[in-house]
Write a structure and sequence with these properties.
Elements: H1 83-94, H2 106-114, E1 134-136, E2 168-171, E3 175-177, E4 185-192, E5 206-214, E6 217-225, H3 229-236, E7 254-258, E8 261-265, E9 272-274, E10 281-284, E11 300-301, E12 308-313, E13 321-326, E14 333-339, E15 351-352, E16 356-361, E17 364-366, H4 368-372, E18 379-381, E19 387-393, E20 402-406, E21 410-420, E22 423-431, E23 446-453, E24 460-475, E25 487-494, E26 501-509, E27 515-518, E28 524-526, E29 530-533, E30 542-550, E31 555-562, E32 570-575, E33 586-589
Parallel strand pairs: 1-2
Antiparallel strand pairs: 2-6, 3-32, 4-5, 4-33, 5-6, 7-8, 8-9, 9-10, 11-12, 12-13, 13-14, 15-16, 16-19, 17-18, 19-20, 21-22, 22-23, 23-24, 24-25, 25-26, 26-27, 28-30, 29-30, 30-31, 31-32
């Protein structure tokens, strides 16, 4: 069978079967047929070629890609009493051999060094920390349809997930419809844009895409890689600069404006400050050295005090969970406390009320064996670990948390929470299973209401489903964080086939369950709907902003919807000069 369409071309002068050269590692099964041309290339000196295998790193002497990935090994939790294994992992991480997203696997370094695939979906060979950008007018060349979905390839290397290679500046963008004049600011969204075209959607290098709106016009679009040490090492073709965490991060999950700062945030590592004027990277943020190795991509700002509530989880050693309170000006940590957990689990989000912090812990455990085996997602679903929800006082001590033990479930995103008397209500997008397959997706997430009763000696827990439509990536009026939402907006997902599909934008009345949805049609796929309030209207009145990819033309646009009438479709649409890959979370910064 032929090589996958994103496979990098053989550089001029490189023999296609030169032993000892680096080859891309693709964890799904691509077995070359006799006579296939296998594009390989010599590694630029002095970079050593390392291939990942369960036994550890070894120099590759084969011109052929690695065979199909072996069966996932049975993993074990990195326990506090296992210093030898923990030290082994630390050394492997420091050498860039393993880690979330395989930050510096030799195959990825080779792909990055050689440039884009023929389709233009990979990085430019000229990408570097000093790479130049291209300034374009708003007009674009005639569009062509995206390649058809190939079920034999992972969903995250094709379609709307494909990375883009160019950093672009475009001005005076074409607008269809009428942009509300009150939308005066910068809409900016983060996402994974892997420098290696095989990088899993969760673990590519971060790239932000922004559109500046003012006076009913779309003044400019620009996109920039978040220039972390991981990014710099990738474009230089060198090993990852240390253990994941702190400044060693892809910084690819969200952007968050707080205290006059604009931060890029990842699942792992510190925030990186961005300049909203041009989206350039200012540098890592450690808040005076008070942050641990990681900070959540989903902090919560208290609308009354302006304080920012957040947490970080650890991978290799306790504390596996730390709760933070950050000052209103975003310059210091005012409070930090560790919270005892039984293992290193992936905790992506949490909730707050005006009196409480609510954490949820599902059985998605960091797995040393998977990390050492080079798996793109070094986590495993362990139903024996169970799940639990914990409640502690807002600004309180970690020892005060009260846990409720539950059957296994997983939640990526909460919508909002509110405390009424002794009862906390939390709305979440809940999955019954997660990471049960190699894609990290197993079934839809359903909007679910949790009710936590704190009146007794032991808290009690109840749940009920609010909608049968798969909903995630919620948007809410952030002025109501911790005070409860009447309405929220979600992207509707479909996971019943090999392709992860975003179908539409759905508004939900959380009191009645009534829905208000925009279904753009079979060719268009939206992303997270970000709510921007109308400054001249009441709570939950405003607009939804989302990037939409059109498969028929392989182009993207910024779509503006009336949050009060989603089904009416776009109020305005800003045509963008290049495709914006599917990403994660956004913010709107009033400048």
């Amino acid at each position: 069978m032929p090589a996958p369409p994103w496979w990098p071309p053989t550089p001029t002068g490189a023999h296609p079967t030169t032993p000892g050269s680096c080859v891309p590692r693709w964890r799904s099964c691509w077995a070359p047929s006799p006579g296939d041309s296998i594009p390989t290339w010599p590694l630029p000196a002095p970079l050593a070629c390392a291939s990942i295998c369960p036994a550890g790193p070894s120099r590759s002497t084969s011109p052929w890609p690695a065979p199909c990935s072996p069966s996932r090994p049975t993993g074990t939790v990195v326990a506090e009493h296992d210093p030898v294994r923990r030290a082994l992992l630390r050394r492997a991480l420091a050498l860039g051999v393993v880690g979330p997203g395989l930050l510096a696997a030799c195959a990825e370094a080779a792909e990055r060094a050689t440039g884009p695939a023929p389709s233009g979906s990979g990085p430019s060979s000229s990408s570097s920390s000093t790479s130049t950008t291209t300034t374009l007018p708003a007009a674009t060349s005639p569009p062509t349809a995206a390649p058809a979905f190939d079920p034999d390839l992972p969903y995250w290397v094709q379609g709307g997930f494909r990375p883009v290679s160019a950093e672009i500046d475009a001005v005076d963008l074409e607008v269809e419809g009428a942009l509300p004049p009150a939308l005066d600011g910068l809409y900016v969204r983060n996402g994974s844009n892997g420098l290696a075209p095989t990088a899993h959607w969760f673990f590519g290098e971060g790239m932000v895409h922004g559109v500046r709106l003012a006076g009913g016009r779309a003044l400019w679009y620009r996109n920039r890689w978040v220039r972390t040490p991981v990014y710099e090492a990738a474009v230089a073709g060198t090993a990852a600069p240390g253990i994941p965490g702190r400044e060693v991060s892809q910084s690819n999950v969200s952007v968050y404006a707080h205290g006059g700062h604009l931060w890029s945030l990842g699942e792992i590592g510190w925030p990186f400050e961005l300049d909203p004027a041009d989206l350039s990277t200012v540098g890592p943020v450690d808040l005076g050295g008070a942050l641990g190795p990681n900070l959540t991509a989903h902090p919560k700002r208290d609308p009354d005090t302006g304080l920012l509530h957040a947490f970080g989880y650890g991978l290799l050693e306790p504390p596996y969970l730390t709760y933070y309170v950050i000052s209103a000006d975003g310059t210091r940590v005012e409070h930090a406390t560790p919270i005892e957990t039984g293992a290193s689990t992936m905790i992506h989000d949490f909730a707050v009320t005006d009196r409480d912090v609510v954490f949820w812990e599902g059985p998605v455990l960091f797995d040393l064996d998977l990390a050492l085996a080079g798996e793109p997602i070094p986590y495993r679903w362990d139903p024996d670990y169970g799940a639990r929800v914990g409640v502690m006082p807002l600004g309180g001590d970690g020892s005060e948390i009260r846990w409720i033990e539950l059957d296994p479930f997983y939640v990526f995103h909460g919508t909002n929470a509110v405390r009424t008397g002794d009862t906390i209500t939390v709305d979440v997008s809940e999955l019954s299973d997660f990471f049960a397959d190699d894609d990290g997706i197993d079934g839809p997430s359903h909007l679910t209401r949790w009710t936590i009763d704190l009146s007794g000696e032991r808290p009690t827990f109840a749940r009920r489903r609010l909608s049968d439509i798969p909903l995630d990536l919620p948007g809410v009026d952030r002025r109501l964080v911790g005070r409860g939402s009447r309405r929220a907006w979600y992207v509707t997902t479909r996971t019943d086939g090999p392709e992860l599909w975003f179908e539409g934008i759905t508004g939900v009345d959380l009191a009645t369950g009534a829905t208000d949805a925009w279904w753009p049609g079979p060719a268009e796929q939206p992303n997270e709907p970000f709510f921007v309030p109308d400054p001249d209207a009441g709570p939950e009145e405003g607009w939804l902003l989302t990037y939409v990819w059109d498969r028929a033309t392989d182009t993207s646009s910024l779509v503006v919807l009336d949050a009060g009438d989603v089904a009416a479709g776009p109020v305005a649409r800003v045509r963008l000069p290049q495709r914006v890959p599917f990403g994660f979370h956004a913010d709107f910064v009033r400048l």
